[in-house]
Design brief:
Blueprint (H helix, E strand, L loop, with lengths): L4 H25 L2 H57 L5 H83 L3 H14 L3 E5 L2 E2 L8 H9 L6 E2 L6 E4 L6
Parallel strand pairs: 1-4
Antiparallel strand pairs: 1-2, 3-4
Helix pairs in contact: 1-3, 2-3
InterPro entries: CT398_CC_hairpin (IPR056003), Oxidative_Scav/Glycosyltrans (IPR052376), Zf-RING_7 (IPR003743)
């Protein structure tokens, strides 16, 4: 392939712009905010699961408390009814009177036991509700921190994308000055190795840092100025400049 020396030198400008674009892409992929957001999102998800568990426990205890309180009311109503019968004097038989008094004592004891159960459930429910409050607060705090990180990420993205757009515009202008066949070769090499062209500095390829053999140097010296030279080692386009010393 042949191309004007000026067009070949434009490949170096293009390679430099592509290097900037690659660095910007790498910077975009490796923003510290991205890792922070991932970590915070994982923590928020874990706490959200814990919140569901604590809320479920609180809900179960609420139902358990309602049932226990209903049992207390049932026993209390029976005890009050028996006490009214006892106080009314309707029971005259000594045996029935003793049985009624025994039942009242038993119901009062049962009521006391059930009230203890209610208190125990209330304490457990209070602890569960406290855990819910604590977890929700922690989740909200982490979500707020994640929001700050997301704002930082978005601001960085906007800055990087703006800079990339400016560099891409320069790249488009530079590409327009390069013949289509030379540009296609450059793009193919760049796709394969990341860099499509490199400067020939003395007897060394600036792309792979390999020193060229004497035979290769002589071949390049003998080549016409418009011949497109390739590095034997990395196959990049070798661009000859004043620094080449040839």
């Amino acid at each position: 392939m042949k191309a004007a020396p000026a067009a070949q030198k434009r490949l170096l400008d293009l390679a430099e712009l592509d290097s900037v674009i690659d660095r910007l892409a790498h910077r975009r992929r490796t923003l510290p905010e991205l890792a922070q957001i991932d970590e915070l999102s994982a923590r928020v998800a874990r706490i959200a699961t814990q919140v569901i568990g604590a809320e479920t426990e609180s809900s179960d205890l609420a139902r358990e408390q309602t049932k226990a309180e209903a049992d207390v009311d049932s026993v209390r109503i029976r005890a009050e009814r028996d006490q009214k019968r006892l106080d009314s004097g309707q029971v005259s038989s000594p045996k029935d009177l003793a049985s009624l008094q025994s039942e009242i004592v038993s119901l009062n004891r049962r009521q006391s036991d059930l009230e203890e159960v209610v208190l125990e459930i209330m304490e457990r429910r209070e602890a569960a509700d406290g855990q819910v409050t604590k977890l929700v607060a922690e989740r909200n705090e982490l979500s707020a921190t994640r929001g700050v990180a997301e704002d930082g990420r978005d601001a960085a993205f906007a800055e990087i994308d703006k800079e990339k757009g400016e560099v891409q515009a320069k790249r488009d202008e530079t590409s327009a000055d390069i013949p289509a066949d030379l540009l296609a070769l450059y793009e193919k090499i760049r796709e394969q190795s990341g860099v499509g062209a490199a400067r020939l500095q003395g007897a060394r390829c600036s792309g792979c840092r390999t020193s060229l053999s004497i035979a290769e140097i002589n071949r390049i010296k003998a080549a016409s100025h418009d011949e497109v030279i390739r590095c034997e080692e990395c196959r990049r386009i070798l661009v000859r400049t004043a620094e080449s010393g040839l």
